[in-house]
């Protein structure tokens, strides 16, 4: 990839004991000039749904600060529980459509 074509990145790992129960999104980054243009949605849709399904994961999970929760809720994630390990971060999850 040419450096100028890079618009964003997504880092992930598998969590859980039963065949990788959760596809956990560690970080999602979209370059500032490409934000609010659907880049984050495309990354989440293509990478997480495709990989999570192929790996047999039942859920996609992530931690997010309060101000971006509406973005993830529009993509079908729901907030689970109270504040998590890091102050101000909330855990969200979405069931994988197999």
- Compute the average pLDDT: 83
Which oligomerization state do the chains in this entry correspond to? Answer: single chain
Main β sheet profile = 5 strands, mixed
Individual helix count: 2
Q: Order of strands across the biggest sheet?
A: 1-2-3-5-4
Helix content range: 10-25%
Indicate the overall shape: globular
Please outline what is shown here.
With 98 residues, this protein is α+β, with helices and mostly antiparallel strands.
Which characteristics define this entry?
98 residues, alpha+beta, 2 helices, globular
Structural overview:
The protein is of the alpha+beta class and 98 residues long. Helices cover 22% and strands 35% of the residues. The chain has helices at residues 39-54, 69-74; strands at residues 8-15, 22-30, 59-65, 78-80, 89-95. Strands 1-2-3-5-4 form a five-stranded mixed sheet. The protein is globular, with a radius of gyration of 14 Å.
Furnish the topology, listing elements before pairings:
Layout: E1 8-15, E2 22-30, H1 39-54, E3 59-65, H2 69-74, E4 78-80, E5 89-95
